[in-house]
Design brief:
The complex is a heterodimer. Chain A is mainly α. Chain A contains 18 helices and seven strands. Chain A starts with a helix and ends in a 10-residue tail after the last helix. Chain B has 14 helices and 47 strands. In chain B, a hairpin with a 3-residue loop joins strand 18 and strand 19. The chains are: A mainly alpha, B mainly beta.
């Protein structure tokens, strides 16, 4: 039969088809398959770098975690020049942190990195530890930020409104079956997780070179952050211990009275323990960068060229606090006030504006963003000492801050007056660096501010969990009032 | 002549041999010209020949054999040898009846009688010499089931083709285009200009277009066929004398009808009212002063001075009379063995808008060679270079504020366009123009360069090897290559380029797409009644796309426009994407006794785009036809000439996913950077179970011809259900992700298609033919995904999160908003209805929102009347219509603010506005900021929702054909023609034109289609 020949041809074609199923294997070239992505040191190192990259988004340290705490609390005043941060300044319902998605994205990067390490036995233990330490540091940092935004802090809880901490996700997700629907953990569980991550990070980062700082996590960064976490968690004994450990490593970084202002004008503040660098093509630009948020100026003392919007400026209350110690007769002047100056009229009324972010990397709107610096650790220690009955040591620490600023040392301060001074110096020292709202919140203090006071019991003290999240995860409970 | 033939016949029949030599001639009944290259064959055998240059043929045949004479575009003619019938054949031009040949894909063709599915055909003469740059525009209104929409009036601009409705929510909806067997990538990849990937092909190089509509016919294209398939067959050479065909037309496109807007005085009046109404305590004088200073006029102008302020017409400057030129030259010819066709064309067209134009140079070469009796090879290359300048403002979204088609009507009318010395008014150095539109858009349009250059090559080589009389082996290879260079240069003198000293964005995009494979074909007629036509084949397609993009600032002066001249490179990006697919395909066509036909198709398709768990899919199709008119019980009904019933079922797939989605099932790490070091971040969650979107369709059709085919037509009803539609399903963000692509959505399209043709009258001196088509489609979203919270009101709609145009139970493109209730006659405030039908000033979103129709039309179609006088003078009038389309007139929204913000206003809206208590109108009082206290914007809800239905007199063509032989020596034929295009539109739409596509900014800045007119001549030597 002639047609038999063609049946063979058919079978032949079919067999080609079978054998050539890999002809349609096309691998992505601008991305890599997550299935086998983290299978080498190069790729894991790249993933570590990517994890840090996640922190640059404006929803995290690009802007919000630095500027919104100042707007929500009593340090900032919105000028409405672009309209941005005005709702946050007015504590409008829903105008709050929107970090949920971005913090968990970063946590997932960290979880995936941690999970990839045990199988990579070909990588030296020290190297693996260095990687794991960084991932644990970032995970601890992100859970601390989540807890600060969405939950009450252990020492200041409105019990009837308390819905707990945030969901703790500790396993990496790359495939759909790995997606979980976790409920919120308790506040204590969350803080314990943060402590344990940061403590483990400090151990694992033991051999990491200090020169990796400040763009990458080091042991100093882990201990410094741990001191903040314990302070926020109200575990003052451990806060004192952690800040002592940290100060042993970073104490020498403290700026002196002479180089204090210069430190804030250099691209990398010498005090910085951990910060997020921004390079040229990462410029956040004229709408959302911290420089445009805080000031219309493009350079110190130049009131003729207008740069950004200057949406959030120091409140009268903050400026008054700077003023309180000044005695022109005695020649006493708080040199930190020099970091605030009159802006331009390019966007409307000229305002006194914060110049801590002023395009220090050489380009307008391009600044590294400091997450933790030595002065904070010192202030953490002061407060921890105060709360562990070491008032003399606390006074010493706060006087270090005062004298460096050009103020006379205080003597004989004890009790509430000492605590008030520590908190006041904390406010003045760290103003416009993203601390104020949390420092009030963790102590259960009301927000006393011009548009309207917000009592600590008001539901707006906590951010609402994104509505879409409650739809996607039935086990979640929304915060009170939302 | 007849006598000679008779003698010849007599002579040949006297030969002793059983075979006789039959000699004859074939002519065209209409023109009387000889038909060259007509095929003459003995029925039921492979014996055949073609007519020579004089239309003559010679063939050996037995007495009693039936000779079949056929020629493309003509009705077949049959006669029996020795019966005494004349051998001089007058072929009649084919009308749309059951004998027409249609192409079905993979080298298959059928007579229309044998077709079992739904296929429509358009022939070259229907689309030739129209002032369009791509053939898809020419299809508008011609075919049932096919909706063609121009995105705008830019020559060569984007066009949207939808076959049988919208079958996907997130995927591509474009049909699969196949030119001479080469599947094209029809994605619009141009970043800066509105462009159409089909522009490379001169529509006049097309011989025919077949549109495969139902799933039983398209299933042979499997996973890429869910949007329908358009097969384009280009013109080929014919044996005989070399023909030279020259064609030229000249055209003009008129500026669109202007929108009537306010003069300076009326604008100041309505703005002053707006300011006063919003701040009741303000005195008239204070309001006027604030209005005047707000638009940079002295605040102390007297009424007399205001009355003498001039008004400038920006629309007059923005729109213009555009010109078109089209030159074509084609050579074709060949002999029995070798045939060729070459064409070259040049098309130049200005838009009706400043600094927007189109230029195409194209050439095509097609060769065929009969290598041996068994082996036949043909090849073609189509090359097209298009260059276009687009309007400033972005073709697919982007900033429309700077687009002159948007801004020219909205500029405040007191802004001059030029200074007294002829230079532009309102340059950035002068502080811009007054009003929200603070740039001189004429200057911006003229100085900025928004351009793209596209080079496209589509080529193929095919062979047919006749293994035996019944078996044929047909390998094929085709390539579709294109590259785009896009430039967006923002001149340092314009606001966008002023502060950065000029900005250049440069885009380069290269796409390589090749297809290869082979088909084995078996075709045999058994016992004169069983006709088998079967094919099996393999196909492989691979596509790769590579792009790079640069952004540079800081040019020394406007003279410098290239990357290395800019001082400050800002960003450089680039990437790659690609996919591969392979398929086994098979089809069996069986015909019994020319009465019953059956087609079965099966394709097994694999694509790199899908996860290992679902990489391959099976796409079947079955269809059958019953030619009732061959049955004796119908044959005896005298008025029925043709009657056929057909039905089909099939499944097709859609692997054309949204742009850039090449690996939808993979989890992906993408590149990131931190601290000047490279990094990776996980960006996509993997879903290995992902499959292609599927469409299942049932189609039933009836074809008929009555009264000797005086009236013919077909009616199809279809029900197509699209399932497994990809949607981004939300996952808890605690997972580190937002969404995952999942096969969850379902859509349904049900419709009726009618095509009707009537030969009202036909004689040598006059004929009149009418063609009509109608398509009604009911589109419905059947399912989204579980867990969507229903809207809390009485309708309790399930709406796709983030996209209110997708509502379960409603057509896609839903308009979901509050209903406007007119103006309170007492106060002049706009009112809306709440959920319960009561008046509210502040409708709740979404509680008071309702469904108010859809952007996609309920029915559409066309009507063409052709009149022929004395054979040679032809008049064709084509109408096109769309009904039931609702759309918000976005540009109208801006134009209806009545001084609420610093935009000009439509005269009609101004005239009808509420002024004093008791005024009954639907236009609220002027109000600064447009939103009254505790109320929504005056422009909210359905106030600007309009009916975008229209009927358009699309084409009016008058042509005269000097086709009689020897009219002028050496000239075979000559035709002169004149066509008017977009002549008149009947519509309720209040914007420029109801035909546009929403790329995200509604009709804002869409350059409207406008009237155009061409005159031309075509000469064939």
């Amino acid at each position: 039969m002639n047609s038999l020949k063609y049946i063979f041809l058919l079978i032949f074609t079919a067999s080609i088809f079978q054998s050539c199923s890999d002809w349609i294997d096309v691998e992505p070239r601008t991305t890599i398959d997550s299935n086998n992505a983290l299978n080498s040191l190069d790729r894991i190192n790249a993933a570590v770098n990517g994890m840090y990259d996640r922190l640059q988004t404006t929803n995290l340290y690009g802007r919000d975690l630095i500027a919104i705490p100042e707007a929500l609390a009593d340090n900032g005043r919105a000028t409405n020049k672009s309209g941005r941060l005005n709702p946050e300044y007015r504590n409008t319902t829903g105008a709050h942190f929107l970090i949920w998605e971005f913090a968990y994205r970063t946590i997932n990067e960290a979880n995936l990195i941690i999970a990839s390490l045990p199988a990579r036995t070909e990588i030296a233990q020290d190297v693996r530890d260095g990687i794991e330490g960084q991932a644990l540091f970032i995970r601890g940092l992100m859970y601390l930020e989540l807890m600060k935004a969405y939950a009450y802090m252990p020492k200041a809880i409105v019990d009837v409104q308390n819905k707990g901490g945030v969901p703790l996700v500790l396993n990496g997700v790359a495939d759909l079956p790995q997606v979980t629907f976790p409920p919120r953990s308790s506040i204590d569980d969350c803080y314990n997780q943060i402590y344990s991550d940061l403590k483990a990070a400090a151990v694992k980062l033991e051999k990491t070179a200090a020169s990796r700082a400040p763009a990458y996590a080091t042991k100093s960064a882990a201990l410094s952050l741990l001191s903040r976490a314990y302070l926020y968690g109200g575990d003052y004994a451990n806060a004192a211990k952690a800040s002592e450990d940290a100060m042993a490593l970073v104490g020498s970084k403290l700026l002196t009275k002479a180089n204090y202002i210069a430190g804030f004008r250099s691209a990398v503040n010498p005090e910085s323990i951990f910060e997020i660098p921004f390079v040229t093509n990462e410029n956040i630009g004229v709408n959302l960068s911290l420089q445009t948020t805080y000031t219309t100026l493009v350079a110190v003392g130049n009131r003729t060229t207008t740069g950004g919007f200057g949406d959030l400026v120091p409140s009268a209350n903050l400026l008054a606090a700077f003023q309180s110690d000044i005695d022109s007769v005695a020649g006493i002047f708080d040199q930190r006030r020099a970091l605030y100056e009159l802006g331009t009229m390019g966007r409307g009324t000229a305002e006194i504006e914060c110049t801590k972010y002023l395009g220090k990397n050489g380009t307008v709107n391009l600044d590294n963003i400091v997450i933790i610096r030595a002065s904070e650790v010192l202030l953490n220690r002061a407060e921890a000492y105060y709360n562990t009955n070491k008032e003399a040591e606390a006074l010493t620490d706060v006087n270090t801050i005062r004298t460096r600023a050009g103020l006379p040392a205080k003597t004989g301060l004890t009790g509430q007056a000492l605590l008030d001074e520590i908190l006041k110096q904390r406010r003045l020292e760290l103003a416009f660096e993203g601390h104020r709202f949390f420092d009030l919140k963790r102590l259960g203090k009301d927000l006393v501010k011009a548009p309207a006071n917000v009592p600590f019991t008001d539901f707006r003290i906590l951010a609402g969990i994104p509505a879409r999240e409650l739809g996607a995860n039935k086990n979640l409970v929304q915060n009170f009032g939302y | 002549m007849r006598l000679i033939t008779f003698v010849l016949l007599l002579f040949s029949s006297m030969l002793v041999s059983a075979q006789t030599k039959v000699v004859g001639k074939v002519t065209d009944e209409k023109s009387g010209n000889p038909v060259i290259g007509a095929s003459v064959s003995v029925k039921g055998t492979t014996i055949g020949t073609v007519t020579d240059i004089d239309g003559q043929y010679e063939i050996m045949a037995n007495n009693g054999d039936v000779l079949v004479i056929s020629y493309v575009g003509m009705n077949d003619y049959e006669y029996t040898v020795g019966s005494g019938a004349s051998t001089l054949i007058n072929l009649q031009e084919k009308s749309l009846n059951l004998d027409e040949v249609v192409v079905t894909g993979y080298g298959g063709s059928l007579s229309k009688k044998q077709v079992t599915g739904s296929i429509s055909k358009v022939k070259s003469d229907e689309i030739e010499n129209l002032p369009v740059q791509s053939f898809d525009r020419a299809l508008q209104g011609r075919i049932s089931g096919v909706q063609v929409t121009s995105a705008n009036g830019i020559p060569g601009g984007a066009v949207q083709v939808r076959i049988r409705g919208v079958g996907s929510i997130s995927g591509s909806l474009d049909p699969l285009y196949i030119v001479d067997g080469v599947p094209l990538n029809s994605t619009n990849r141009s970043l800066f200009t509105s462009s159409n990937p089909l522009n490379f092909l001169n529509p006049n190089d097309i011989e025919s277009i077949e549109i495969l509509k139902d799933a039983s016919t398209t299933s042979i294209y499997g996973s890429q066929a869910a949007n329908g398939v358009i097969l384009v067959t280009t013109k080929k050479g014919k044996a005989g004398k070399t023909k030279i065909d020259f064609n030229y037309y000249k055209g003009w496109v008129s500026p669109p009808n202007k929108l009537e807007v306010l003069n300076t005085q009326d604008w100041i009046r309505t703005r002053t009212d707006a300011v006063k109404n919003a701040a009741p305590g303000t005195t008239d004088a204070a309001a006027l002063t604030s209005v005047l200073t707000g638009i940079r006029l002295p605040g102390n102008l007297t009424q007399a001075q205001i009355d003498s302020l001039p008004t400038y017409d920006w629309q007059d400057e923005a729109f213009q009379l555009g010109q078109m030129d089209n030159y074509e030259l084609a050579l074709s010819g060949g002999n029995d063995k070798t045939k060729f066709y070459w064409s070259g064309g040049l098309n130049k067209a200005d838009a009706n808008l400043v600094n927007a134009d189109f230029w195409r140079g194209s050439t095509a070469l097609r060769l065929s060679q009969e290598v041996t009796k068994r082996l036949y090879i043909e090849t073609s290359v189509n090359l097209g270079v298009t260059k276009s300048n687009g309007q400033f403002g972005g073709p697919s979204g982007g900033s429309f504020l700077g687009a002159s088609a948007f801004s020219s009507s909205l500029m405040l009318p007191h802004n001059p366009i030029y200074n007294a010395d002829g230079s532009y008014y309102g340059t950035p150095a002068d502080g811009g123009t007054a009003g929200i539109l603070n740039q001189n858009i004429i200057m911006v349009s003229k100085l900025n360069e928004i351009s793209s250059k596209v080079l496209s090559t589509v080529g193929n080589i095919n062979a047919v090897y006749k293994i035996t009389d019944y078996w044929k082996f047909k390998p094929f290879f085709g390539i579709d290559y294109s590259n785009i260079t896009g430039r967006n240069y923002q001149d340092p003198r314009t606001p966008d380029g002023f502060n950065v000293k000029g900005r250049l964005q440069l885009d380069f995009n290269e796409n390589t797409n090749y297809t290869t494979g082979a088909v084995l074909n078996y075709n045999r007629l058994f016992n004169q009644i069983h006709n088998f036509d079967a094919l099996v084949g393999y196909e492989y397609r691979k596509e790769a796309n590579e792009f790079s993009y640069a952004w540079i600032e800081g040019f020394p002066s406007p003279d410098f426009k290239y990357p290395s001249q800019g001082a400050s490179p800002q960003s450089i990006t680039g990437g790659w994407a690609g996919y591969a697919k392979q398929a086994l395909l098979s089809q069996v066509k069986y015909g019994f006794n020319s009465k019953y036909f059956l087609t079965g198709t099966l394709r097994y398709d694999g694509s790199s785009r899908f996860g290992r768990n679902n990489r391959y899919g099976l796409f079947p199709g079955v269809s059958a036809a019953w030619v009732l008119s061959e049955e004796s019980f119908i044959k005896n009904i005298p008025f029925i000439s043709d009657l056929k019933l057909r039905a089909g079922w099939g499944i097709t797939g859609r692997d054309q996913l949204a742009n850039g989605n090449y690996f939808p099932s993979l989890g992906l790490y993408s590149a990131a950077a931190y601290n000047n070091n490279g990094g990776i971040v996980i960006s996509t969650l993997s879903n290995p179970d992902l499959v292609w979107e599927k469409t299942t369709e049932v189609n039933v059709g009836l074809e008929f011809g009555i009264l000797n085919n005086k009236m013919r037509g077909q009616i199809d009803v279809f029900d197509r259900k699209s399932t497994d539609l990809l949607l981004e399903l939300g996952v808890p963000q605690t997972s580190g992700f937002n969404t995952i692509s999942s096969n969850v959505g379902e859509l349904s399209n049900r419709g009726v298609e009618v095509e009707l043709g009537v030969n009202w009258y036909r004689s040598k001196s006059f004929s009149w033919v009418t063609d009509f088509n109608y398509t009604g489609i009911q589109n419905k979203v059947l399912k989204l995904y579980d867990g969507i919270t229903k809207i809390a009101n009485r309708d309790s709609f399930t709406i796709l999160p983030g996209n209110t145009s997708i509502i379960v139970g409603k057509p896609i493109g839903a308009v979901f908003t509050s209903e406007y209730a007119g103006v309170n006659p007492a106060t002049g405030r706009g009112m809306w209805y709440d959920e319960n039908g009561n008046i509210t000033y502040n409708p709740r979103n979404p509680g008071d929102f309702k469904y108010h129709g859809s952007n996609i039309p309920k029915f559409f179609g066309g009507l063409t009347n052709s009149f022929t006088f004395f054979r040679d003078l032809e008049l064709i009038a084509g109408f096109q219509y769309e009904f039931g389309r609702k759309a918000i007139n976005n540009q109208g929204t801006f134009l209806s603010e009545n001084g609420g913000r610093l935009f000009n206003v439509l005269q009609d809206v101004y005239d009808r506005r509420w002024v004093k208590p008791g005024d009954i109108t639907d236009v609220p009082r002027s109000y600064n900021g447009n939103a009254e206290t505790r109320g929504v914007s005056n422009l909210s809800g359905t106030r600007l929702l309009e009916d975008a239905s229209y009927i358009r007199l699309k084409t009016l063509t008058l042509s005269y054909n000097f086709c009689r032989k020897n009219f002028i020596k050496k000239i075979e034929s000559m035709k002169v023609y004149a066509t008017a295009f977009n002549i008149h539109t009947w519509t309720k739409w209040s914007g420029y034109d109801p035909e546009w596509i929403n790329f995200g900014n509604g009709n804002n800045g869409v350059v409207p289609l406008s009237k155009s007119f061409i005159v031309g001549a075509q000469i064939v030597f």
